[in-house]
Each structure stands twice: as C-alpha cells, then as structure tokens.
Amino acid sequence: MHRRLKLGMVGGGQGAFIGAVHRIAARIDDQFELVAGALSSNAERAAASAAELGIDASRSYASYEEMAKAEAARDDGIDAVSIVTPNHMHYPVAKAFLEAGINVICDKPLTSTLDDALALREVAKSSSAEFFLTHNYSGYPMVRQARDMVRSGKIGKVRKVQVEYIQDWLSAPIEAGANKQADWRTDPARSGLGGAIGDIGTHAFQLTDFICGEPLKELAADLTSFVEGRLVDDDAHMLLRYKNGAKGYLWASQVAPGHENDLRIRIYGERGGLEWRQENPNQLWVGILGEPKQLLTRGGHGTGEVAANVTRVPAGHPEGYLEGFATIYNEAADAIRNGRKSDSLSVTLDEGILGMRFIDAAIRSSKANAQWTSLGA
Amino acid sequence: MHRRLKLGMVGGGQGAFIGAVHRIAARIDDQFELVAGALSSNAERAAASAAELGIDASRSYASYEEMAKAEAARDDGIDAVSIVTPNHMHYPVAKAFLEAGINVICDKPLTSTLDDALALREVAKSSSAEFFLTHNYSGYPMVRQARDMVRSGKIGKVRKVQVEYIQDWLSAPIEAGANKQADWRTDPARSGLGGAIGDIGTHAFQLTDFICGEPLKELAADLTSFVEGRLVDDDAHMLLRYKNGAKGYLWASQVAPGHENDLRIRIYGERGGLEWRQENPNQLWVGILGEPKQLLTRGGHGTGEVAANVTRVPAGHPEGYLEGFATIYNEAADAIRNGRKSDSLSVTLDEGILGMRFIDAAIRSSKANAQWTSLGA
Amino acid sequence: MHRRLKLGMVGGGQGAFIGAVHRIAARIDDQFELVAGALSSNAERAAASAAELGIDASRSYASYEEMAKAEAARDDGIDAVSIVTPNHMHYPVAKAFLEAGINVICDKPLTSTLDDALALREVAKSSSAEFFLTHNYSGYPMVRQARDMVRSGKIGKVRKVQVEYIQDWLSAPIEAGANKQADWRTDPARSGLGGAIGDIGTHAFQLTDFICGEPLKELAADLTSFVEGRLVDDDAHMLLRYKNGAKGYLWASQVAPGHENDLRIRIYGERGGLEWRQENPNQLWVGILGEPKQLLTRGGHGTGEVAANVTRVPAGHPEGYLEGFATIYNEAADAIRNGRKSDSLSVTLDEGILGMRFIDAAIRSSKANAQWTSLGA
Amino acid sequence: MHRRLKLGMVGGGQGAFIGAVHRIAARIDDQFELVAGALSSNAERAAASAAELGIDASRSYASYEEMAKAEAARDDGIDAVSIVTPNHMHYPVAKAFLEAGINVICDKPLTSTLDDALALREVAKSSSAEFFLTHNYSGYPMVRQARDMVRSGKIGKVRKVQVEYIQDWLSAPIEAGANKQADWRTDPARSGLGGAIGDIGTHAFQLTDFICGEPLKELAADLTSFVEGRLVDDDAHMLLRYKNGAKGYLWASQVAPGHENDLRIRIYGERGGLEWRQENPNQLWVGILGEPKQLLTRGGHGTGEVAANVTRVPAGHPEGYLEGFATIYNEAADAIRNGRKSDSLSVTLDEGILGMRFIDAAIRSSKANAQWTSLGA
C-alpha cells in the first residue's frame, strides 16, 4: 500500500524561488507530502507561508533548530527535510537535522565554504540519516541516456569534455536594486566565495562528473567580475585535465546576453560524440564516426531503459525542469524507504564535497593567474 | 487557508496512459487530492489500482454509477471527477456525475458521437455542476501568448491558419497485436467514427479555435486509412474557410514516420506571423513585416502576462506537457471554487460540441469526395 | 581539351534579378562563356548592359529575332541561349531560337499560358535543338539524395507528399509602388493567369514530381488574393490525389510574414519519411520507422553518389542557391555536348508543360469552388 | 568596359582540394580569368591539369620560378597569382612572384614558420605588388554584419569572445592510409609545427580579430595529439586575455566526432551578444539585453549595408562557402585595379603574420604547460 513520505522544509517562504521548485518536485510523483516547515527566518512570513501551503500551524516552526528537535520527537515526525536556504545556511541546518536523525535533501552547492563541507561530512558519518544533494540536472532522462552511452563505451574512450552553463541575468549591476535573488547570490557572506562558479559552475562540473565519471587531475581557471563593483565572479572559465589524459573546458557565466539558462554539454570520445542542451532537454545528439548524425529523443527509438526508467509520458510529450527535479526526489524517496544502495543515483554528500573542492580549486587557480591546480584530497 | 479539492477518477487503472497524466496534472500545483475512484471496469484491477494510488478501499468503487451515487451522498464527497475512459464511455459517465451534482473534468474528445454530445449538453443544462474538457494543449504558456497576440491585433487581421498534428505510431498495423492504446483507438465502437481526426485532429482544431477564435464557415476534407484493414482514418487533411475570409489547412496523421507528437500551428495575418510547436513548447516564433524574426520564450523578454500567469519556473527552465495539463486543472479548480466566469479559459462543453461537429463534418465531407461542408448548428 | 560553350542571353539587363543568377550559374563550373545578348527591349539599356558584361558590341542585339538570326548564321555562333525575360516572352523567344536551331535554356514557368506551352512543344518537335527549363531547386544535392531514396524504395511506398513554398514579400500591396519585380509578377498580362501559383507554386509542384515521380490524378485548389486590388492570387493551396493512392498538400504563398523563400518538402512512405528545406539546403532529415531520426548532410556519411556527383566542396562547407542552379547549367552543357540521354536530369519541355497544366488545373479548380480537377492530357 | 584580371595559379593540380575552390571563387563574379599555372610539382600532372582547365600549353609551367619570370616578361602577363600549395611552399612561391612584381593571393596560413613569415614581410616591403591572404570566412555577409555591429557598439564593450572550429575527419589515424589531405596536413615538414592550430585554429583566431579588432594580450594554450603516433596537435584549446580586459576561449579540433566543418563564434558585450555558425552561414543570432532574441538573415530586415554589399541573391536564397570565398577575390580585384585603400577588407600580410605569431605563441604556451604567453612584437 502506497504511503507518502512526510517532508519538512527549511527556507522557501514567500518570495523565494527554489523552495517552490522543491515542493512541486516532491509532489509530482506522489512520493512526499509536505507537513512541516521553518519557511523563513522572519516569523511572520514563516507562519503566513505555512498557512498558504496547508502546513498545520502546529508544525510551522520559528527556527530550524526548534523544528529539528520537535520533529525528531514526534511519532509521526518528518521522514526528510528539504533545505532551500541561501548557501551559507546549508551547513548549520543540515547539521541540526542529521544530528536529530532526520534525512536531509539539500539544495546545491553543498555549503558556502570547503571547511563547512568537510565538517558536514563528519556530522554525516555519525548520523543514522541519509544526505541527498539536489543536483537536479542529472535527473533529466537524456542526461541519463548520455551517461549510459559514455559509460558503456558507445563513444569510445573519452578525449574531450566541453561544458558551459551561461545566463544573462547579471549582465547589469542589478544587485544594487531590489532583486532578492541577485542580492544574496552576489553576496560572499551568504553565497560563498564563488559567484557564477558556485551558483552554476558547480552544476556544470557535476554534470561532467555524473556523465563521465572521470576524476579530474587539475584545472587552470580564470574568474572575472565584469560588472563593476560586483564582489564575486560573474564569469568563470577554465581548462581541465583528467587523470586518464582527457581534456576539457568549463565555462559558467551570468553575463552572456541572449542566454537564459543555457547549460550545454558535449563529450567526444574516440568513436563518437554526444551533445545535450538543457533548454531543449528531450533531445540528445549523437555522432558516431562514419555514420550520419542521430537525434535521440526521450522515449524515442534508440533511447534505452535508463532514460525510460525516469520518464513519465511518451515520446513527443516534452518533460522539463520540474520532472527532472522530481526524479531526484524519487530516488531519494527510494533510498529512504529501501536503504541507500551502491547504484543509487541520488547525489551524495561526497559528490557535494567534490563540488566544493572544485569551487575552491577554481578560485585558488584564478588567484594564482590560472595556474594548474588540483582539487586536492 | 489552503484546502485541496477532493478528486475522484473514472478509468485510468493499471496499464492506462492518460489517467496517470491527469493525476500528475491534478497534483502539480497542489489544487486537488485524489480520494476516490472507479479505476477499471475490471473489479480486481480497480481495487489493485486504487490501493497503489493510496485511495482508501472504501472509496474504490466497482462501477461509476455506484461511485456517483455514493460520493454525492457523502459529506466529504468529491468536488470533481476526472473521466479518463475510452471515448464511448465519456457520455454515460459524465451524465451520471452531472446528474449527481458533481463537477466533471473530462478527457477529449467530448464523446464518441455527435448525438451523445448533444444529449450531454441537455444533461449539463439541468445540472448544478460544471463541466470541463481537458484540451491540454491550450494550457501551454506560449499558446496563451500566441492567443493574446492574435486577439490583440499584433499580427493584424488573420489571413491564414496552418495547423498539423502528426505522429508515426500507427504507421504499421499494430492494432493487430497487443498494443492496448492502438486497440481501442482504432476501434470505431469505442473511439468513435473518427480515427486520427478524432484522436488528434480535434486537438489541432481546438488549438486554432483557442488562439484565433474565428468561426469556421466550411471545410473540405479528405480522410484516408492508409494501413490496410484499418477501420478508421489514420490520416486526415482538409482545406478550411473561415467566416471572415481567412483560409486554413488542418492535417492530422498517425502514419507520418519520424514524428512523435508533432503538433504545430502557424498563423499569418496582415502584419505578422506566428509559429508554435508542441515538441519545443517554450518558444514562439514571431515574424512582423519589416522586422527581423524574433524568438519569444516562456518567461523571456517580450512575453507577456497571460503567459507568465500560467508559468511556474523562470525562463530557460523548460516546462512541458504535464505543466500545460496542470494549468487546465488549475483553471478548473479556480472555477469550481469561485464559480465559472466569462473569461475562464477552462474548456467548456460547448467547445467540446464544436469539436464533435468538426469530426462529424470532416467525415461527412470526406464521404462526399471532399465537398465543402459546414459544421452545422 | 576543355572548351567552354558559347552562351547568349535574352533579357537580364540592368535592374533584373534572375538574369544575374543565370550568368553566375553558367560560370561557376566554367562550362559556358557569355558572348552575345539581347539584354533588354530598351536598346540603350541593352547596349549598356552588354558593355558591362564584357559582351562585344557586335554581338549585343536590339531584338531577340535579330539575335537568333545573326547567331545562327555565324560560324562561331552561340551554342545556347538563356531566356530570362518575364513569362509572357518565353514563348516567342524560345520559338525564335529553336527555329534557328539554337539550344534554349529557359527560366520557369515555361510560358504564360497553357496554349503557348502546347504550341512550343510543336515548335520543339521540329527543331534540332534541345530545350532546358531551369527548375533550379532540383539541382540541390540533398534534393537529389531525397529523390534517390524515394525512388530506390528506402521509405517504402509513398503515402503522403507535403510541400510548401512560402514568402512574405507581397504581404502588402507593393505593386502599387516602384518594385519592378512586384510589378510584372502581379500583372496577368506578363506573368500569366497565376500569381503565387505560377511564380512559386510551379517550383513546389516540380519538386514533388522530381523527387517522387508519381503522376497526379487530381487536385482541389483554393486560390486567394488577400491583398485588396491584386489581380492574381497571392496564396494558393490545394489537396492532391495521386494515381497510386498517395495523397498530398501543396501550398504557395507570398503573404506569409516571417518567411523569405521557404520552400520545404516532406514525403512520407510506408517505412520512413524525409524532410528538406531550401533555406538550409545542405541537410536532409530522415526518419525510418523504429530507428532514431538521422540528419544526412551534403557530403556526409550516409549521403550517396547522386548527391556527391553534383557537389563541389566537402561536407560542412555549405553550398547554396547558386551552386544548385549551376548544376542545372552543367547538366544542360553535358546534354548539349553529348546529346540528351534518357537519364539526363536537366528539366525537359514536357515537364514544363506538366507545370503549365498544373497552373491551369489549379485555376480551374479554384474557380469551380475547389472541385477535384485533373491535369488533363 | 569590363575587363577580367588575368590570373595564374601555383599548386591546385588534379587531386587537390583548395585549388578548385580558389578557381571557382575567382570566377563567380567574373573578375578573373585563369590563364597560366604551375599546377603541380609533377610535370606530367601539371600539364594534364592545365589542359583540363583550358590553360594554353604555352603558359603551363613546370616550375613556379619559371612561371614568375616568364609571366613578368609578357606584355599580357598575369595580374595576380593564386598560391594553393601546401603551407611550406607559400614562402618561396610568394617571394618569387612578389620579387617579379606580380600580385599574390595566398591561401592561409601565411607560411609554415614564423621566420618565413617575417622574411616574407621584408620581401613584400620592397615589392611593388600587393599581397592578399584568403581568410575566406571573413567574406561571409553575416560575418560582415557581426563585425559592423560589434564595431559600431551595438552590443556594448566586448567582454567575452568564444570561438571554436571543430571537425572530425582526423579522429582516427587516417594519415597512415592514402588520404592526401591528411598526409600533408599532419606532416610538420609541409604543414608547419601546428596541426589543428595551424590548419583551422588560425581561421578561428582571424575571425575573432576580424570581427572585434581587439588586440590580444596573452593566451594560455593546451595542445594535444589524441591520435597515437600523430606528429602534430589534433586538438588545441586556450584561454585568451585581451588588452582591454575582455576574456576569451578558442578551440580548434579535428577529433570531434559529429562535426564536419563547424566554425562558430559568439561575442558578448555589456549590452548584447551575437552568435554565428559557418555551417548555416546566412543567419546571425542577436540577443540584446531586455529584448527578445532576434534572428538576422542575409538580405533580411535589420541586416545592413555592409552585408548587402557582399551579397548576390535575395534573402532566403542561401549563399555559401564559395560565395564567401569569392568576396575575398572580389576585394583583391578591386584593390589590384584601384590601389589598396586603408579600408580594404582583403586580408593583409600583416594579419598573416599575426596569425603566425598566434600559432607560435600557442605552441610555446602549450610546451610551457599552458603558461600565459603573449604574441610578441
């Protein structure tokens, strides 16, 4: 008999963006119901947001500490908490819930500093609860297809990885105005030392890792703040070298006019190449040497089971961002119910730490004039 | 305070396609919760399906008649029922619930015959309940944008409407095998007299009507069953003439290899043209005479409020088929809560009847060698 | 040893469009040199145009009659004449040269009336010279590829042919102004009874015939003059029925805002479908049932010899309109040098007559309220 | 009165690729006629090639030295020579003709070593003749449009330049076989030290320079020979820094499966972005902050005079690679006839030297582990 998991949320009150995304993602496949929350650090807004969302007033908390304690004490306490705060709060909130034995589903990047990330790992080691990081782009069916093709050798040994994630919304100094997203995302105290590199560069990096799985040897990064007065980078690009000899390029930018949320990855191997683009996510271009180019589609001919497994509607009925996000929630639900297995695709804390090392290495490399820098550890 | 509407469902048990779609659509924006069902005419499958979906066994019914009666009698009875059966059952089921005073959300086409459709209208007139038809493609944000642009005169007086809805899944005689979808959709007794014309042609027709709102004067249709032995048309195309002098072309096909679910509409007026394609639904091409072509995007610059109102995530984060469908459910929820208003966009029974007249006229025209035929009434 | 053919030209003086195209096409592959001309009916403009083009003054003629006579009399007279006048002059000019025993390369459509076309056939029968019609779009390599795939059965028996050729340059009544092209192309006395149907509809029709080769049984056409006061159709569309049971749709429009020269053809058979678009002519989409979609490219893998034979540069180096046109000239040169062979692809006078029958039938059908009409003969 | 310039050619005999391209380019706009040649270092092949091309036997030379001397001595000697040999011969051949006072039109890259390039500059200084380098991609109309938009400030101060030129034809070790192109292009003795960086990277670099005109401060390059045993790089990528603070990325690869001749450039400024792709060259994407994206087309609305000036046919009639190449020849013809002017767009020897410095700097940087390296001088 079907039983929804009980979900709490920290952050995501009125006016937030990513909280609503998590709530829809949790709901799409009916695996979770939202029953508790500390939705805002502002008590009034927290209560109003909870009421709007149908959370009983008794389970709308003024602070995440109180929530962790109270929910852990209830017989019908939450099975998991979603953390959708600004980055600098990920660590203390995750710590509180992990220590209370409650599973954590956390937005990316893992934390705002590498130190926090490493500390969180120690917390997690002593906890009975699981930690999941919502690198949602790895939930897209055609990303799964790409991963399967690369890992099964369809394109041969990988030679080149080209990934970019570019936007234009920070092309002008809008943080000077009232844009709430721009405000915290360009403030090092809340966002972390990285700007574009942390906000979207980590998504790009995780996507390469998710698809290829090749360990990075070193990177040579050049980070820039093109908008005058901006405190963090708004454009970051770098050369990559993998341990197996492959090379790569990663570019994250929030000052690329004409691009909305343009995450694109291309992978070239000895026998073939792949191209996927987030803004048209139901397609995957495949070029095998000596053959005509093919356009694989979600649900279409030539697209395999790993994609079909995370698909809801037939070919030609486009799925989008929310469905990809929902897949991450589904996989977390499955791991919560059945125990985490080695082949779980839900993103781990270790992958979150790798992402933090990536940000850290990119910033160090850039400060050292794009010197080759390893991710460390 | 937020309160979800209580939803029941008829049809949509294990193995069905469109039932699951309706359930996700109802859930995405948290407006409905599924609490009752007569999910299959097979009692065992009905019960198993209900259990899987978390419907309490006491509200899993063996027949829709029983369900209508029982739910109408409960204090906490359902606010609405979703009808997701094969077409020929739409009429009796809708009748039962409307007569029980329960709002109906029904999959398209309205019924399997024009007679049933007209009879249903009489039923609805005497009912206190509302009727909604889920022509989901009119829920896409960029379809709303197109509608707004056409109706506000942005492209001038409309001259030409070109719509096509083409698929390839019936290119071979698969109804001879075990494909459940192919089986009932090609059986006139369950699907109605039309094949492609009823299954997808009505979507195409509704889309033209939704966007342009111009009454059709007459059509000249040529319907074909290309696959030997097929009992209904698998390809239907026709010339259109509108009362205001505009002309058009509509093509529905299920034997067009290389096309998955390719619904595409183009509208040309005195000053500009528009193009929208369902398989890449977050874009709308706009060509204004004397200007460069523009690519409007959901959430992007130049796209207006009518689209934004039915949008969940920012530009560049693609929404898809399920979100468009969810918008239809949201509008039904709003109408159920607040009373149907003249500007409600939820599809009406009258539009369903227009769709049935369209199928009927197309079949009559084709039988008369593509003679010009009006929709009647 | 290489020897260029000697070419003359009638029409194509200063200010004309298509004359310059023919001259470049004749020159690209070095098969022709332009040595004579009656470039304008205005003597002064004729002489000035000839001087500009490097034609010796002694071979710049004041009239085509004089030119035909003089060139036929010379030992080093022209091998062929290109006719690039307005449509109504095609017949008398072609007649003069054919009667003088000089090969004719003529722009389309064949003539301005069907009577002229039939008369021209009689002239041609008694002439020793060859006649070539420059339906240039059949010169594109990927059109050749499509033809080869259809005719060799790659997509199975053809069921559906969808062709459109749409432009927007006549969306407003520009013939009222000084646009020379708009002026004669919308004047029935010079252009013929058809507007869009004759100017571009014939190209679309010829393309279907070139690729598929299926004889048309009948058509049901609806022609419209959307621009007030226009004397010819500016939009023409029609249902098609082929003798073998295939169906089709053809649309020609010059009032479709947002389209420049958008000739597009799709062909669907029992086993696969093809799509080609003139504005991006180096690609051909192929969809075979049960396989992923393929994108064939000029010179790329999977594209065969018939395309390679009419290709100049490697894959990825785009060829365009002029190269496709040049191929028609090359094939004419080959036929002139070596005699016309049964497998020559240069467009014949008979195909030109078929095109005139098509225009004639479309106009007759439209006048009879889109009655089914055969091409006759 | 029109008079064609007399052209000679060195290299480009039977079996060569680029020679035929130059000949068509020279012919398209009727500015040149080919009258002399030293088409091959193999005397027999030289004579046979000349005969095929209609070059009089008396002007088919066995060596370029002889040709330079003989043509300089003739009253009707050639106005210019096209050099289409492998790279290492550019220098001696160009030297011979410049010293003979004959204008030179030379394929890129300028030479095979930087030393040769600098020596050639000295030769050119003492010569009365002009030198033109055929960086043909700068002849495309929409590249001209991009240049005009960037230089006139339409996109604001440039921040980011992203260029890539990728192919797949060297993904496997085909130089081991009989491929003539692969053979010399991967041989350092004939091609120069650079592989992909010299063959196509220089095109990419020149395109950035042509459009933006910003001087490069330094680059950090990583060159790779992915194919075992290959003597030159087959993949080269690098970070760029411009003197004005802009940043960039350049990637040249011949081992990117699925790409034929995929040269693509994107430029982002403070107010807008541009994107152009060689394989679909008649389009230019423009994204201005706060406006919908626009698709400019060759000849279309919003595309200006600088593009129109190098255009032959109307919008929607695609021009391609050969037409872009022809524009370079036209501009050379104009400079030869009227004297080179400061605003001539024909590519200069100095730009060729810049290209050689680019190759040289990239190789030096890569050998020094991608150390930041300036172009020098």
From TrEMBL, chains A, B, C, D:
Domain called GFO/IDH/MocA-like oxidoreductase: residue spans: 143-275
Coiled-coil zones: none
Gene3D superfamilies: Dihydrodipicolinate Reductase, domain 2, NAD(P)-binding Rossmann-like Domain
All copies of domain Gfo/Idh/MocA-like oxidoreductase N-terminal, residue ranges: 6-132
SUPFAM superfamilies, alphabetized: Glyceraldehyde-3-phosphate dehydrogenase-like, C-terminal domain, NAD(P)-binding Rossmann-fold domains
InterPro entries named among the record's database cross-references: Gfo/Idh/MocA-like_OxRdtase_N (IPR000683), Gfo/Idh/MocA_oxidoreduct (IPR051317), GFO_IDH_MocA-like_dom (IPR055170), NAD(P)-bd_dom_sf (IPR036291)
Superkingdom per UniProt: Bacteria
Membrane-traversing stretches: none
Annotated protein name in UniProt: Oxidoreductase
Species of provenance: Maritalea porphyrae
Species classification: Bacteria, Pseudomonadati, Pseudomonadota, Alphaproteobacteria, Hyphomicrobiales
